[in-house]
Amino acid sequence: MKLATLRDGSRDGRLLVVRKDGVAATIAPDAWPTLQSALDHWDDAEHALRAVAAELESGAIDGAPIDPHRLGPPLPRAYEWVDGSAFLNHVILVRKARGAVPPPTLETDPLIYQGGSSDLLGPRDAIELHDPAWGLDYESEVCVVLGDVPIGTKAADAGNYVRLVMLANDCTLRNLVPDELAKSFGFFQSKPATAFSPFAVTPDELGDAWRDGRAYVRVRSTYNGTVIGDCDAGPEMHFSFHELIQHIAKTRRFCAGTILGSGTVSNAERARGVSCLAERRMIEIIENGKPTTPFMAVGDRIEIEAFDAAGVSPFGRIDQRVVTPGSAS
Asked: pLDDT tens digits for 237-283?
């Protein structure tokens, strides 16, 4: 099942049930006007929404064409946005780029930070760059939307709480990171609003591409019209989403509507490219002694899309341009 949120002037938008091809959709039943309302009552809502999806797919319901510019993030505001860094190649490269070493528990204890969740961006929303000196970077990620997660949940049971899967562009202001982390209190100013793919899908929609708490899809990053990353999101995700859920639920529970990210998708094989500019800059330092790729500037464009083994794009495309403050449309 594929879901989206139509911007209708309200804070939380209107839930859409989307046809598998992502071209047409229909308004969800009135009982579930928003995605959050469906997540809050998932046992009932899922059954009703799947029935609508089946009718839409069969042609019993005439779906309306989707205008991607009218879609917000699937969850326009979330109770929590929690992001991991499950791809160890990314951790090693970006830490090396800022002269830091990975923690000794790199392979045994997931890295997690908590981002802002009240201001989330849609797939076509612009990225406002308030100061080029901050070092704007994109980050291509996979993420999941959770149901109610009990405290103490173990990885073996965590799949029961994964409701939806989608993509994210978790932007980072790289030049603000070192001073923030030097305080030993984590990211804050260096993490602006995150954008999400137009569609969120139930794990079964991915078929064999969803297994062991990982999405076995290629995440393609196209920067200013050039593909600079075509990374496999499955094999090198060191900590699965199930393991990340176990980690975050060690001391507290999470409510339905929490979003959990994988961190930047990253592969050790250089030919796969990169899912952020920080990795490319580090590779340039390793190979040439200094970085030559600048961070993002006004006018730049980043597109993020994932493809399964059959070349299908289940989540749709994030397509954002960098603009000056106040000029976002």
From this structure: 999 999 999 999 999 999 999 999 999 999 999 999 999 999 999 99
DSSP of 71-120, one letter per residue? Answer: B--SSSS-SEEEEE---HHHHHHHHHHTT----TTTTTS--EEEE--SS-
The pair of three-digit structure tokens given for residue 182, joined into one six-digit string? 């030097």
d(CA 93, CA 282): 6
Helix, strand, coil abundance in the chain, percent, nearest 5: 25, 30, 45
How far apart CA 269 and CA 279 sit, in angstroms, is 12
Q: How many CA atoms lie within 13 A of 48 on its CB side?
A: 18
Dump pLDDT digits (tens) for 158-171: 999 999 999 999 99
With a CB cutoff of 8 Å and minimum separation 6, the contacts of 298 are 129, 132, 322, 323, 324
Nearest to 74 by CA among 20, 159, 143: 143
Closest CA to 17 of 68, 54, 44: 54
Helix (H) or strand (E) holding 54: helix 42-58
- Region for residue 12 given its phi and psi (left: phi exceeds 0; alpha: psi -120 to 50; beta: otherwise): alpha
In one letter, which amino acid is 173?
L
Distances (CA, A) of 83 to 145, 187, 319: 12, 11, 21
Q: Where do the H-state alpha helices sit in 221-264?
A: 241-248
pTM, 2 dp: 0.96
Residue ranges of E strands in 170-310 = 172-173, 195-196, 200-201, 210-211, 214-215, 218-223, 226-232, 258-264, 301-307
Gap between the Cα atoms of 214 and 192, Å rounded: 26
d(CA 170, CA 93): 17
Query: Are residues 300 and 128 in contact, defined by beta-carbon separation less than 8 angstroms?
Result: no
Both tokens of residue 292? 């030559």
Query: Pairing mode, if any, of strands 2-6 and 14-18?
Result: antiparallel
CA distance 264 to 237: 10
